[in-house]
Amino acid sequence: MNLKNRSLACIACIISYVNMLLLIFCVLVYLGISCTCAFCSPEYSAQISFVGKTVDKYDFERITIPIMVKNTGSKTWDSFASKGPVFISYHLLSGDNGKMLIYDNIRTPFRQAIASGTKQIINLNVQPLQPGKYILQIDLVAEGVIWFNDQGTKPLNVPLNIIQSPTNISKPKYKLKNFSPDPVWYVEGMPDINYCSLLSEKTLEDNFLSFKFKSIPVYGFAAGSGYPQIWIRDSATIMPAARCTHTESELISWIMAHLTIQKQDGELQDWIMANGKFGKNTVESDQESSLIIAAYEISKTIGYKWLQKDVGSKSILLRLNDALNFLFVYRLDLKTGLIKSGYTADWGDVSNEFPDQRAVDLQKGSSEVVGIYTNALAFGAAEKLSFLFDVTGNKGKATYWKTKASALRNSIQRNLWQENKGFFCIHQHVDGSNNSNVDERNIFPMGGNAVAIEMGVATPVQIKRIIDQAVYRQQLFNFSTISGVLLPPYPKDFFKHPALDDYFEYQNGGQWDWFGGRLVLQMFINNRQEAFNKLEQICHKAFLNKGFFEWDTMDGKGQGSSHYSGSAASIYRSVVEGLFGIDWNYKQVRIQPRLSHHTGYIYVPQIENKRYLSYIYKCKMSPNSDKLYVKFSFGSNLTCPITLVLPKSYNNNDDDDNYNYACLKINGKLALSNAGSTFDHDNMIRIDLNEGQIELVTEYKKISK
Contact at 8 Å (CB) between 330 and 378? Predict the structure, then answer.
């Protein structure tokens, strides 16, 4: 064969080979099979899958969808990379006609980097939506670089149905025996309060996290949508609600994880997350106090033995001691005897000095203050740490922290209480000056004052005056609820950060149920008649917003993070501990219903030890209105002492008639008559309840005018 013929034969062979490869490629494409070798794969390529067909959610539920993604590209995906971080996201389409509604939506980060050839399940976060039918077109995005679909990845379409939540929660079946893991309350004729029974439970459930932090299994709660971290102070607010519905490991693992990264001087971080990262907003001084308060709340359910567990070379309790000692050594202002922090809006974590991320950290030369929120919290932490040392047998440490607490309370009263204003001032400046030209003495810091009541800093007279101020300022500034945190707020542009550079915005005068709920709880505990109305206002706002938000505008429109755990937990407490009056400690229970003339039912479990208590409360008038009857039906499998507290007299709000206690029947038999021995020093009736079921009827007779 000559050279020319040989060349033609080679060309024909190459053409045949190429045609064969093209044929194979077409067959693979037709079958949906793609090559994943490094030569053929693009940088950004993925396989996206979902086990299921359609997602159905109520409009108040947090929408998270488990999605499996496999990295079929040549590049590792990292959501925390400085350049081109990769996230999972979605385009929102109409479920009726497929029309694009919103192209660009929120991003969900991966818990950890995904290398080429590996896969991970991610809970895709979806923004709150109005009731209707939608399609989520799920794709990955390299931020600032490319959507994966543009490089050949096939997006995943997931149908999503958002269901209108019921305007009236159905009356539950009242039960007084048998264990159930789900807490529930119901107040007849109060749909907004009943709505929050379901809403608070779902909010905390949707924010429950599980991941490994530096190879340690960790359980805990996100602060809300858009917050993948476990924050200490948010968690401390959540624990009083979560302690009844979660196991010991789910309650304490996040605390132990935080203690593994405690510094030698006792200082704690602020947050941890699944990728092993952690950090701290150093402008605050509340992290150490908050962790101690969280540990105390958990111990009210599971006892105190867990505090003796070691983290490294020290027990949990001794590490809590080191944490609080850090504040009293490194954050103490010697002149006032108070704990100092950065210059923020009361309990806020953004200073007034910078317009960017620097605002959350103390910088060289930053202004420092001693504020009511920080110090009331530190006082509460010292009191509770003293108690924990006492019950675990360390009397020396108990006395030490009791003394510290007493001295701190005296300093708070001396430096921060404003007798002429009737509330604790927001703060004093460490250097003695106030260069802001703002009269901060007139700013009512509701959050810090609510914590001062909660932690026991305020006297009974001060409590009344603080609550009076909260009620007055809500009316003065025309807020929809009592949750306004700074009234009046700092002026426009006082804070340089865009999150709160306007008045009545974010921490500068927005509504925060995180603290409004705490105040309402204290209003119930201190027998304020307005408490029920203030609770109802907050619950109505949550109903209109279809959820608890991070904060709300003056007129109640939800802002910031949705499905906010701190708000849900605070309202849970204001209902369970405030309205229904359940104070459930490790070895005793006290029940003081504050339902007045409302019929109500509550069931509260403790998952860890499968215990429960429930009761039905009914108040009714006799036909001729000369008598009033309170019927209390109770059920429990608790073995600890249980005390029921009822008032000596009732007031009928309809006609302002008063009714005095006459007699008590237990299971139909006369038990107590109107004798002085039935009343304690608070002029309240106290009745010991036993395990099992019991029915009491208390009779009150009308007082002649």
Answer: no
Residue 11 has pLDDT above 70, yes or no: no
Report CA torsion sign: 209, 210, 212, 217: positive
Cβ–Cβ under 8 Å, residues 43 and 73: yes
- Among 654, 635, 650, smallest CA distance to 703 is for 650
Rg (CA), the chain: 30
Alpha helices in 207-261 (DSSP H): 232-242, 248-260
| Residue with the larger pLDDT of the pair 436 and 596 | 596
- Residue pair 629/650 in contact by the 8 Å Cβ criterion: no
Mean pLDDT of 213-229: 92
Cα–Cα distances in angstroms (integers) from residue 284 to residues 43, 362, 520, in the given order: 42, 9, 25
Alpha carbon distance 463, 457 (integer Å)? 9
510 in Cβ contact with 559 (< 8 Å): yes
3-class DSSP state of 116: coil
Q: Is the dihedral of CA 352, 355, 360, 362 positive or negative?
A: negative
Sheet strands (E) in 523-599: 549-552, 558-562, 582-584, 589-591
Residue 14, helix vs strand vs coil: helix
CA distance 331 to 288: 11
Which SS3 state, helix, strand or coil, does residue 261 take?
A: coil
Spatial separation of the C-alpha atoms in residues 652 and 683, rounded to whole Å? 19
Q: Are 218 and 226 in contact (CB under 8 A)?
A: no
C-alpha 212/C-alpha 29 separation (Å) is 39
Q: Specify the residue for token string 């359980």.
A: 219
184-215 in b/e form (b: 16+ CB < 10 A) is bbbbeebbbbbbbbbbbbbbbbbbbbebebee
Cα 146 to Cα 88, 119, 404, 409, 490: the distances in Å are 12, 20, 57, 57, 42
CB neighbours of 330 closer than 8 A, spacing ≥ 6? 265, 267
d(C-alpha 389, C-alpha 325), whole Å: 14
Sign of CA dihedral 328, 332, 337, 338: negative
Specify the DSSP class assigned to residue 266.
Answer: S
- pTM here is 0.85
Q: Which two tokens stand for residue 280?
A: 């701290």
- Of 414 and 620, the one with more pLDDT: 414
Residue 33 pLDDT exceeds 60: no
* 166-184 confidence digits (pLDDT tens): 777 788 888 888 899 999 9
- Site of tokens 């009234």: 487
Selected residue with higher pLDDT from 681 and 344:
344
User: Is residue 116 a contact partner of residue 44, using CB atoms and an 8 Å limit?
Assistant: no
166: preceding bond cis by omega (within 30 degrees): no
